[in-house]
Amino acid sequence: ALEQDEKAIVFSERPELCILLSSELGKIGVESRLFTGEQSISARNVNLDDFKFNGIPVLLATTTCGETGLNIPQASTVIMTDTSWTPSKQRQAYSRILRPQQKKQPKVFFLRNKGTIDEYMQQLMDVKQDAIDNGIDHQESSFKPEEWLSYKDFSYKMLREEGLI
Length: 165
Prior knowledge:
alpha/beta, 15% strand
């Protein structure tokens, strides 16, 4: 995104990850601003204005702090670093860039590590989203219980794949 002269928002569930990413980006000369609930409202507003209007290319935000009420069409790339337990929370977060004022093709990336809790959580999110869609739109559910792994079964599967059992 930065090579294309685009702004990016990186969302995490955890403020600690945002702080770590800010430090690591600083080490390679990339300026960023934090947008987390641990900051005062005035500090968040300053950081958001810096990102929107003052040339800062990366905003590091928690999904809780950045999920609703924000319009940030200045960014065209969103990176979701971890999986939320709630589909709507993620959708709210990445929707910050999906505005009529958006001038570039929006891109949303989900970082998911195979063989980790991310895989299980994504499965859970897919089932929840399917239930929501089915309830709202009266669609036929695509959920196949025979393909669902319980957390216990998922854990055993991962341990087997790692050769630990």
